[in-house]
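Please check this one:

***
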Amino acid sequence: MMTVTNIAVALVALAATIPASGTPKPSWRDCADQGVPGMRCAAIEVPVDWARPDGRKVRLELARLPATEPARRIGSVLGVPGGPGSNGIEDLKHGAADLTELRRRFDLVAYRPRNSLWIQQVPPACMRPGTTLTETRSPREYEALAAAMAKAFTTCQKADRTGLLHHMDSLSVARDMDAVRRALGEERLSFMANSYGGVPAAAYARLFPRRIRAMYLDGTINQVDGWPRQWLRALPVHEQVFRRFTAWCADTPACALHGEDAGAVWRTLIRDADRRPIPVTSSEFGKGELTGWHLRGFAFSADPGPKETRWLEFAESVDKARRGDGSGFADFALGNARIWATPGALAMTCADGRGFAGYSQLREFRRQAEKVSPNFGGSAFDALGCAGWPGKVANPPRPLPVSGLPPFLGMGSTWGDYVWSESFTRLIPGSRTVAYEGPGHVMYLSGKKCPIRYATEYLTDLRLPEPGTTCPAE
C-alpha cells in the first residue's frame, strides 16, 4: 500500500522523440550493476495519450533476464506489477532467485509502468490532500467531499507538467504493455500479474486477447466485476480471519486482551469511537481524530506477522485506545486517510472506475457491508477519494469478452485475496485458481515454493492443476 513517505516529488522532464509508425527495437545493454547477474536493460518511448500517437512521449524502462537454456526457449514472460505505482524491474530483481526454473525456458521481462514514473514526477501540489477522509453519512457530506476533491484535482491539473494526470488508466497501461511486446518482437506473450496489476492485465485481455499465450494472476483484484463487489467479497474473509485472531488471543496470555472477549472489546471500541472520536497526535501527520470508521478501515492486519507480532501490537493498541490513547493507530490511520485524499495517489486509480457513482451507491454499499461484516463494514476508504474526479473514467468496470482468451491460472491466499483472484479467473472458461492456505499476498514474489511450482508448470507447459488444488502454508 502506498504511504506518504514513499512518494517522491522531484519533477523530471519527459523525453519525446519516437516515430509514430511503430515501436523500434530497444537497444539492450548490460545492467548487472542492478544486482542481478546477466540482467540486460533498455528503454522504449510510448505516447502519453494513446489517442494522440504523434504527441508527447513517456519513456518506459525495461529489464530482461535471458533464458538460461536458449536452445529450449519458449518466449518471454512479462511481469505486470501492482501498487499501482510499483516498479516491475524491482519486482524482477526481488523475485529472480525464486524464478530460476521458469527462466530456463523463458526470458523474464520487466518494465517500469507509467504510474511508477508519475510517482517520481508528481508535482508537490498533487500530494496535498483535498481533505481528510471520514465516513460520509448524508448526501450533503458526500457533496462537500466531492467539491473538496474536485478543487484539489483542479489544482493538481494546473501544476502537472508531465501530461500523465489523465492518462494513467489501465487501458493506457495495457497499450504500453503491448508496445513492450512489439519491442521484444514477440507474436504472443506470457504474463505474471500481481495485485493491482490484475487491472491492466484485464485491460490487456480486453484489447489484445489473441496476444496472450498464458496469464498467471497472483492476488489480483477483479476490477471487471466492479470495486464494490470486491470489497463485499473480501469482508466475510476478513471476518473469518478476525475470528482466528480472537481465538488466538483467548489461547495466548501475551495478548493484551487475553481473558476477555476480544471481539466484544473491539466492537465496543469502534462503536464508542464513532460517537466520540479519539483525539490523537501523529509525529508525521499532526493532530487528528480516530473514528470507528478509521479503525474499521485501517487498524486490523489479516497477516499476524512473524510470531504473531502484528496481532500482539493490534491487541495492545486496542487496549490503549479503549482507555483514550489511540497512539497505536495514529500514524497508519491518519496517514492513509490523507494519502487516499491526495490527487497524486488517486490519479492512478480513479480512471479505472474505483470511485462510487454517487451517494446512493455509497449508501447501498455501506448497508450491505455492515450486514456482512459487523467488525469492518463501512464505506470503502479507497473509493471515497475519487469523488470529484474531473477526468474521464476511461476504463470502467464492465463485462470482459472472453473470446480468444486462453485459460488463466490464478493464485490467492484463503486469508485474503483468493476470493478476488478466483472471481476473476472464473470469468475465463477453463481457468483454475489455486488456494494458498495461509496469510500473505503475491506468492511468487514472496518465495512460496508450491505456488511458484504451479505457476512454472502452467507457464511452461500450459498445464493447469486439477480443480480444488491447494498449497499448504509455508
Observations:
- Confidence is low (pLDDT under 50) at residues 1-21.
- The longest strand covers residues 57-65.
